[in-house]
């Protein structure tokens, strides 16, 4: 008898396409949160599939901390051109300049937390009613209870104890004026699934994900990139090493790993053997055990 | 998993893995969190930093051994109270399958979470504490698995280590459970496994202490349960989710109906009926980003192109021409109420079924189920949170559906409170 099973990657892909089409059908002004990281790049790929042969019916929204890896911005601009997408940028620098937020001081200063205000302001400015994100439930314990369609009140806040039940594949995107939704089409994917899918689909990634030589320094068990705005303690020394990013975000909180992997197969082999979670290299989660939960309640990605 | 097996993740074999979704049900202290922790730990799905965090927390709480239950701890409120308050999703993989666990709390007041977790599951693990045997809550867990149409049930009799790994105890519990099932849950795919989640017996590794047991371990069972018949492969059902009309010269006349196949196998040239229009046509092409397909089946997301130009929009149903779904604007269904504000007789709600949005009125509550005895309590005028009952409702426009027992996608509904926009109920059409 013929086998009517989909592979796990095909099933996850089909689920994500279904969710993206629900967003287009249920919301008036959705946007896709694009960070230049692999998860949001996979989302763009899935969006192209979901609406083929039409263009995907939402712009890309990038929240720019100003502390970027140059390679990520170049990649973003090339991608926008290649797929003829629309790009909206929310600037953290602008939020600082207009006094909406105050820049953190000290050695561990990061603009990562400030992003939340810029994100919510940008959502309000463009009247976006749904923001599609690349969040996955395997990333962090607070995300394990996140819905595909995650309701946010008019202050952009998430109430983890009062979430709408989500059954079968029926998604409830009903909301009042001023409220919005965060939608996570790849909720059920793991880091390994994402990499396998990138390999299967031959999706182009920023060079940051592959091994390269970079000036880095070591802090609390993590390598961080040396950059003009990165304050270093006197004891910290920058050294040139062969590294790659496991995630790509704001420089101040993106950890790098020592690696010589220069192709997808090697990266996957490396991840299979690595015994530290992806977010283990995120400096922002080290602040406290409930760091992610607190940021999410306030309206973080 | 050994280092050589890890390398397999990058081979083509990994690309051919299957996906199994399962839910776990157990009463408080049945060891559910420990079991999940054990599955993740022994299948090497935990990372060093997660392990470190749990080791630190175990010491802090004064545990003698590594507290596996802490791996599934989620929200801060839960850590403070030591309970699970919502469905949490966990992931792990072996070289054969990827698993999604819907981890639901066992407290009596959380029927709604169990229903939520069960709605997407291929399999249910029901945990029984060997010391307590089959208790009222076991019936509740088994009934919810059955009501939500979970095709495979694995009963794990846990804490065997506390009863000297006694075969007698195992057989007694199995007989008690079967006696209940024969009455209420005919035709279920049922399996029984004696385990100790704490000591690891028969979870991932075969037990050395229970030579009388010849069956598979839990993980082997989960890896081999056949799942290709879990969808309805017979009745062709395609709820139209979105209409694709590219605004480009190249695709000027393209009109594609996007959706996820809910039942049956579709081929080009198949004769189909478009509902509610009631017009017959043929499938011209099954389109995808990667090119046209020769066939498509659940749960694939595709785009159908049809021979004739028909006015079709979201909420319509494309079905096999000789094999139509029911079309009705009143029907009976089993309902699980999920909101603190009770259901009111004659109350009006928004209703979602497939991609269709309608309004409805509840015009009869036949009975409420005593979830522990499965007795029917004739009722009255309302249904409270976590209650399951049978109701009759009328909709403003007809729905196109199959009985839930035939098709879990087309036969399911949710109700939404129009004042708060909250999802207040889950329904299975009879």
Count of individual domains of chain B: 3
Strand order of the largest sheet of chain B: 7-13-10-11-12-9-8
User: Any low-confidence stretches of chain B, pLDDT <50, length ≥5?
Assistant: 1-7
Largest sheet of chain B: 7 strands, antiparallel
- Secondary structure tally: strands of chain A: 10
Rounded mean pLDDT of chain B is 88
CATH superfamily placement of the largest domain in chain A? HUPs
CATH class of the largest domain in chain B: Alpha Beta
The CA-CA distance between the termini of chain B, in Å, is 45 Å
CATH class identity of the largest domain in chain A: Alpha Beta
Global structural class of chain B = alpha+beta
Kindly identify the CATH topology of the largest domain in chain B: Rossmann fold
Folded structure, characterized:
The complex is a heterodimer of chains A (301) and B (430). Chain A has helices spanning 8-26, 38-51, 70-82, 92-97, 115-125, 191-201, 264-273, 291-298, and strands at 30-33, 60-64, 87-91, 130-132, 149-152, 180-183, 212-219, 222-225, 239-245, 256-258. A six-stranded mixed sheet of chain A has the order 3-2-1-4-6-5, sandwiched between helices. In chain A, strand 2 (60-64), helix 3 (70-82) and strand 3 form a beta-alpha-beta unit. Chain A is an alpha/beta fold and 301 residues long. Chain A folds into two domains: 8-193 and 290-298, HUPs (Rossmann fold), CATH 3.40.50; 206-284, no CATH class. Chain A is 31% helix and 16% strand. In chain A, helix 1 crosses helix 2 and helix 6 packs antiparallel against helix 7 (264-273). Chain A is built from eight helices and ten strands. The two termini of chain B are 45 Å apart. Chain B has helices at residues 3-7, 12-15, 32-42, 48-60, 76-81, 111-119, 136-147, 167-184, 218-224; strands at 18-25, 88-93, 97-103, 123-129, 152-158, 189-194, 237-239, 242-244, 256-260, 271-275, 279-287, 301-306, 317-320, 326-337, 343-344, 348-353, 356-370, 375-378, 382-383, 388-401, 412-416, 423-429. Mean pLDDT of chain B is 88; it is low at 1-7. Chain B folds into three domains: 3-224, Rossmann fold (3-Layer(aba) Sandwich); 237-320, Elongation Factor Tu (Ef-tu), domain 3 (Beta Barrel); 326-429, Translation factors (Elongation Factor Tu (Ef-tu), domain 3), CATH 2.40.30.10. Chain B has a seven-stranded antiparallel sheet, with no helix packed on it. A six-stranded mixed sheet of chain B has the order 2-3-1-4-5-6, with helices on both faces. Helices cover 20% and strands 33% of the residues of chain B. The longest helix of chain B is centred in the middle third of the chain and has 18 residues, at 167-184. Chain B is of the alpha+beta class and 430 residues long. Chains A and B meet through helix 1, helix 2, helix 6 and helix 7 of A and helix 1, helix 4, strand 2, strand 3 and helix 6 of B.
